Amino acid sequence: MKISTSRLLRRSNKNTDNGTIKSNFLGILLLTYILLRCTTGWIKGLQNGDMRNLSLFVSSSGATVTTSKIQDEVAKSDSHFYSWSSQKLSLLQLSRESAQNHQQHHNCTWPFVLIDDRILLQQDQNNANKEEPEQFAAWSYEDNKRRIPRMVHLAWIHDDPHHGPNKGRCLHHLQAVAVQQWKKQFPNYSIFYHDDYSVAKMMQQEFWPEFPELAKVLQCAKMRNAMLIDIWRQLVLYRFGGLYVDLDEIPTEQFTEDLIPHHVDFFSFSDNFNRPSQWCFATSPGHPATYHSLLTIFKRLLEMPEISQPKLVGMTGPEALKKGYAYAFSSEDRYKEGMHYGNFNTTGIKYTRKKAAVCLINKRKDPFPYNATHNWTVAEQYKADSGAVHWKNALSKLVDRGSCQQHLYELERRSSRFPGREWIQREQGQR
């Protein structure tokens, strides 16, 4: 068969055109794939914070956009996944809100006095141009040399209608002496006093994704002062870290900030039963001991057989901290004095109480010098002024009955979310 030259040329050109189209198409696909990978990597870099060290970006329109604004936009786009992150409270913000709330709603009258926080910032050449939170973090952690930040947390819930205006940041003057002594003994530590407003703000905010059952178990904590403070002290150290101390404790001259080494992430004394001291202990933020202590508290509260008779020592008190401490430090000698190395790369130090004893205001038997009417001791005068009641004596005031599970179900049954609410209302109406 004969094929003309022109026909062969046409067939050859057609094959060449098809090859060119195929090669161009493959090139476009390859270029598109490279652009997609680059764009995806760039977006993931922004989301993971890989570009935090860059001070600014330049958009296609020529406008200057700061890194924080770009990160804010990324955070907004992921708000349905990470909505809790934008609700986290800053310790500085919490301190200011507490002070503003006191100015608006409270005033202090004797024997109560106003307590202010002491916030220390790192204002050297390296941090002179940084924002206040960064200066605070630089001082608290001493430029990443410390694992436990240099801050002391003190708290008191009044929860007493007889005090009238003496709430907010008002403390009994004997407690104020304790605060001043902590400031003196710990000159390089920020001192935070958490009042009713500050404690409630932390407990009620929905920014605890690690503990979704928090709001539920609080419904079973009927002994408001003691049980709330037990839970709160674990939360505040889990979130911010630092040293927690009961407000009726006054440090002796032996107890100074030098007792807390920079390389440890857990610090405590031993109580009378050789447990970690719940009245005075310190941790780094997010410590496994506080995490597991909280999980233990939640479990025991939910399993409480009678909410009018809570066993505070075992449920929310020192036994819960002992359980969390045992998770973090599993060695057999963990309750002895000295250094301990535990799970999750934790390092703790534990002292006996004799190493640095503290004075208890509510156990002082010396005569109160300013009371000519009653021949009272300091402890008796403090109790009369503050209205402080030991948790064992407050048990008789609890009115709710039943287990925690029954109580929670009854609360849910009365709410508008309960599926059978309309049926129950209809049945009750027919009766």
TrEMBL record:
InterPro entries, sorted: Glycosyltransferase_domain, GlycoTrfase_DXD_sugar-bd_CS, Nucleotide-diphossugar_trans
Pfam families in UniProt: Gly_transf_sug
One GO term (biological process): mannosyl-inositol phosphorylceramide biosynthetic process
Annotated Gene Ontology cellular component terms: membrane
GO MF annotations, alphabetized: mannosyltransferase activity
Superkingdom of source: Eukaryota
Key words of the record: Transferase
Protein name, per record: Glycosyltransferase
Species this chain originates from: Seminavis robusta
